[in-house]
Design a protein that fits this description.
By secondary structure, the chain is α+β, with helices and mostly antiparallel strands. Helix content is 29%, strand content 28%.
Length: 557
């Protein structure tokens, strides 16, 4: 689990960026309007929790920019000066971390506190958006100490030496992973590859070893007036978003700051970054009334949007909303509506007790599931309930399946739970394995949802309600489960047939498809001995699994 970012800012520094003193009441009023929860408020420090969806507020620079809007010191989109000069960056990094983007910011006025804030922003982004540097990593360098164009390459870990940040001697890339704190902390990201990433300038001066550590020779100090920023990672769109955030925040540290673009060369393809163009979203004001219960005129909406550092204009009966590049959280008109509501003030909305819009009732599939449950209990089966999540080893490999896709979790925290189950039988076999001490016969069933990968669906996944029943004894055969299948279908007056099928999880010649009205709605058979062994079972098992959604549809005609 990623912790909620807690940001500490020096009060005098925040006030310097805002342009005036801040009263305690103003801080208490406006930070919650930015979804920031105040942890500490004193004469010297303001500490607050920022939500993950607002990485632009992970430092004093972004917070000050937002507060200036709410305080109406500076409303509308913050406009950044963009210089005409461009720098080249040649990207030939390793295939496992192929992408890099960069930017230059000139005209900075840095001191110890501003450097501290920029470094803290970098680390907060590393922990959250960058997924502890696995997805992306950020570097800031003193541009006066390096010479463009830059090159992102990958090299043998013993072929290059440089002095890592906060160290006093040169080390090889391999040594850095072993002997520096950051190296040991993030070594797992690259140590198993033959070559390591490296960022160098035109004179082969090392800037950094992404995603591990920067060079001591290029570090940013209070004398730095121009910085080069890079972001490397595994997804180009994500690192562009991160670059936009870090670049615009850095530019807040200079009254005459200028951002220079970087041309990143990927073979024949050139990507120009950062992407500072405004994005446009068409907003229908009726969303406010439908979602929040307030009705505002277009002029009022535009005024509130400008306080939240957007620009907007009227277009017919809609509003064009212009979104700054650092607001990576704005994905849908609902997000815009949320900002309008915050600027309006939730305390000003009031409340109204709404009558119920309709009587609640049990859905047809739940009602049908209850009937099936009662029937199975009447047939002397015991119900079990398993988790929706399991893992491909249990769902696929142990079942002797190949080329079967399951819905997997991107960043699982537990090895046991890495995927959504695509059928119930594997988990019932697990239950049998946990209960070998109970003796035979065992009859258990489960009714539950499964997730089927289906590219035809909008989200490429189809959820189905299944019934699975298993019988286990020392002499169980297909006949034992067929008896219960017959009872199941005849109880609802459905005619069915079993058509022999070859299925890797079942014994050849002892398994079949359950067919109703010429449509397959389930499987039945004796579980294959190799599956029995994989689950550590000591007696044969017969099973059936039925799609209850299809079953119900057959009943309803």
């Amino acid at each position: 689990m990623i912790d909620v970012p807690v940001i500490d800012v020096a009060r005098w520094d925040l006030e310097r960026l805002v342009g005036r003193m801040l009263e305690d009441e103003e801080v208490k009023k406006y930070l919650p309007m930015l979804k920031c929860e105040i942890e500490e408020l004193s004469d010297t420090i303001i500490s607050y929790e920022a939500t993950h969806d607002r990485p632009d507020l992970f430092s004093a620079e972004g917070l000050a920019r937002a507060l200036k809007g709410l305080l109406e010191i500076e409303v509308g989109i913050r406009k950044y000066r963009v210089g005409e000069d461009r720098v080249k960056l040649y990207a030939t990094g390793p295939s496992y971390r192929p992408y890099i983007v960069g930017a230059i910011v000139k005209g900075l006025d840095l001191d110890d506190e501003s450097i501290k804030q920029l470094m803290n922003l970098q680390e907060k982004l590393h922990i959250t958006y960058c997924r502890n540097r696995r997805k992306a990593s950020i570097g800031l360098y003193d541009l006066d100490k390096i010479t463009p164009p830059f090159r992102y390459i990958h090299v043998d870990p013993d072929s290059v030496r440089f002095t890592p940040l906060e160290e006093t001697r040169e080390m090889s890339l391999r040594e850095i992973l072993e002997k520096t704190e950051k190296g040991r902390l993030y070594a797992h990201l690259i140590k198993n590859y033959k070559t390591y990433p490296l960022l160098v300038d035109s004179n082969d001066v090392v800037l950094s070893m992404p995603p591990i550590i920067n060079s001591e020779d290029t570090k940013v100090t209070e004398d730095t007036r121009r910085v080069f920023i890079d972001v490397t990672g595994i997804d180009l769109d994500s690192i562009i978003d991160i670059l936009n955030i870090i670049t615009t925040s850095t530019a807040e540290r200079g009254k005459e700051a200028v951002i220079n673009l970087v041309e990143v060369q990927y073979g024949e393809t050139t990507v120009v970054v950062p992407k500072l163009d405004l994005s446009k979203m068409v907003f229908d004001s009726s969303i406010l009334e439908n979602l929040i219960g307030i009705k505002l005129e277009a002029d009022e909406i535009i005024s509130l949007l400008r306080k939240m550092r957007f620009d907007a204009d009227i277009s017919g009966d809609k509003i064009n909303v212009w979104i700054p590049p650092y607001r990576v959280d704005i994905l849908h008109p609902v997000d815009v509506a949320e900002d309008i509501a915050m600027a309006y003030g939730y305390e000003n909305i009031g409340y109204e007790v709404l009558p119920p819009t309709g009587a609640g009732k049990i859905s047809p599939i739940e009602r049908f599931s209850k009937k099936i449950r009662d029937l199975m209990i009447g047939l002397q089966f015991q119900e079990v309930a398993n988790y929706m999540m399991n893992n491909p080893k249990t769902l696929v490999e142990a079942m002797r399946l190949e080329n079967v896709k399951v819905v997997e979790v991107e960043n699982p925290k537990m090895e046991k739970y890495t995927a959504l189950r695509n059928w119930l039988l594997p988990e019932l076999l697990e239950v049998l394995s946990y209960n070998k001490h109970l003796g035979y016969p065992l009859r258990i069933f489960e009714i539950g949802d499964v997730a089927i990968v289906d590219e035809r669906e909008d989200v490429s996944v189809r959820i189905e309600r299944h019934l699975c029943a298993v019988v286990q004894s020392e002499d169980t055969t297909l006949t034992d489960i067929m008896v219960y299948a017959k009872a199941l279908f005849e109880s609802f007056g459905l005619k069915y047939e079993v058509v022999e099928v070859t299925h890797p999880s079942f014994i050849e010649g002892r398994s079949g498809k359950l067919i109703v009205h010429r449509e397959e709605i389930g499987l039945i058979g004796e579980v294959h001995p190799e599956v029995i062994t994989a689950f550590g079972l000591e007696a044969p098992v017969a099973a059936m699994e039925v799609n209850l959604n299809s079953f119900l549809r057959m009943l309803l005609g």
